[in-house]
Amino acid sequence: MNKHIILLPGDGIGKEIIESAVQVLNAVAGEFGHTFTLDEHAIGGAAVDNYGTPLPDATVNACQNADAILLGAVGGAKWDGLPADKRPEKGLLGIRKALGLFANLRPVKGFPSLLHASPLKEEIIAGSDILIIRELTGGLYFGTPSERRDNGHAVVDTLAYERTEMERIIDKAFQSARLRRRHLTSVDKANVLESSRLWREIVEEKKKAYPDVTVEHLLVDAAAMKLITNPNQFDVMVTENMFGDILSDEASVLTGSLGMLPSASIRSDGAGLYEPVHGSAPDIAGKGIANPLGTILSAALMLRHSFQMEAEAAAIEQAVRECLDQGYHTADLDMRGGQEVSTREMTEAVVENLTCKSVSDSI
Ligand code: ATP
Ligand code: MG
Q1: Catalytic option among 11, 189, 206, 235
Q2: Which residues does the annotation say bind NAD(+) (predicted)?
Q3: Is 85 annotated as a binding residue?
């Protein structure tokens, strides 16, 4: 298959971790006979420095015409003093909006060799494998009016959704559940919020079209507790924007390492933007010690969700797991024993596991 991928390295460690993901994508292309055309564009602080804006038109145009986008990270103290429209983060929000990326997917799956690093008990989190799907372009974060009134003595934020905005994310969740263990947990606050009551109605309507998926409704407060007391009860969780923001950060604790987590922001036609959950880590930028695995795993998500390349995605994930089992780890990972390696060495270890695997498979 031929695919056109836009690379947006951004700031801080962005360049280093995108380079790693490119090496792994090239290895996948070689192993599986694909052609990935990769073009780099500017976003974030790097774009402010070179073009005077965090999101140049050329970047938006390139992304609109691409099959998928892989982003490193944006931001850093260097640009903190700039006016709001020149902040690096504006570039990221702007590109999500320009592309209509309404669904944020965050798989939360711990690697066995890192589970001890979680503050939660290993016997509770072992085996947990959750996909959190968060609505990304509606709700409280986009409500109007959002303002201070009465000389600042009163405030208004609005939680607004169109039925169609709820329907498309709920459909996405059912479809994702079908590709996994076929269990969907819908999270809301239907005992208090009208928006949640409509959300719940739509889930009930939609489930008729997916009789093979079991559905459970959970109030967000209960979901927050169950996530850390019984994470194994979850397969796919779907929820609105703010609940999803909070629950996905909470769930990252299950894995013992925020630096490893990938994410996807996608729309109905499959186009999407993929990025690690962590930030630009300016404190270690340029030192060659950044953990590239969150970005490499984001590239795997890209293959799975935008290109339907399940075997290729699984091969990357397997190679990452094997590297960790072999004890390779970057400085940020709290691993017992093993060998501490650089960004480049970690990447080479992933490529090695990836390519050896398919050689032995084909013998
Ligand atoms: P943002 O606001 O952009 O999310 P943040 O304030 O959450 O940023 P990060 O940039 O994620 O912060 O960094 C938090 C800490 O984690 C820093 O000490 C950073 O060095 C470390 N860190 C983040 N990502 C990585 C990585 N890929 N490899 C190694 N260390 C990392
Ligand atoms: Mg952060």
Answers
A1: 189
A2: 76-89, 279-291
A3: yes
Nearest ligand atom owner, CA of 329: 1
Give the Å distances, CA to CA, from 146 to 21, 150, 159: 39, 14, 10
Indicate which atom in ligand 1 lies nearest the CA of residue 292: 27
279 lines ligand 1 (CB under 6 A): yes
Task: Please give the model's pTM, rounded to 2 decimal places.
Answer: 0.91
* Pocket residue to mutate for ligand 1, from 329, 332, 347, most atoms within 8 A of Cβ: 332
pLDDT tens string, the chain, 363 residues long: the values are 999 999 999 999 999 999 999 999 999 999 999 999 999 999 999 999 999 999 999 999 999 999 999 999 999 999 999 998 899 999 998 999 899 999 999 999 988 888 888 899 999 999 999 999 999 999 998 888 888 999 999 999 999 999 999 999 999 999 999 999 999 999 999 999 999 999 999 999 999 999 999 999 999 999 999 999 999 999 999 999 999 999 999 999 998 888 899 999 999 888 899 999 999 999 999 999 999 999 999 999 999 999 999 999 999 999 999 999 999 999 999 888 899 999 999 999 999 999 986 544 544
ipTM: 0.94
Burial 340-359 (b: 16+ CB within 10 A, else e): ebbbeebbbbbbbbbbeebe
